[in-house]
Amino acid sequence: MITCVVEYVIDPAKIESFERFGRRWMELVDRHGGTHHGYYLPAEGASDKALALFTFPSLAAYEQYRSLFGRHPDFIDADRIRDDSGCVLRYERTFMRPLLPGSGQPTATP
């Protein structure tokens, strides 16, 4: 399992557009083999930070999903929300592996 964490710098004046963008991407991730864990929007503190987390069963499954970017009409339309509104100023994608409750203890290394 691989989890993608996307850290966004957003335009706080365009939060409604960012929410529309986020709802669209949640649908696409879930429809194309992933599980979206939601977008986390500013509530208190910095008003220009947002996060998204979604999981795919493997990096290969994620890469298959990524192959649709710029080609599949639904993906192009979702990106158009971001591009036309200017709601995202920049973003950074990081891949992480989860440590979940009940996953056991790590093995000792010599």
Automatic annotation (TrEMBL):
It comes from the Bacteria. It holds the Pfam family NIPSNAP. Residues 7-99 form the NIPSNAP domain. InterPro entries: Dimeric_a/b-barrel (IPR011008), NIPSNAP (IPR012577). This is NIPSNAP family protein. It comes from Streptomyces pactum. The lineage of its organism: Bacteria, Bacillati, Actinomycetota, Actinomycetes, Kitasatosporales.
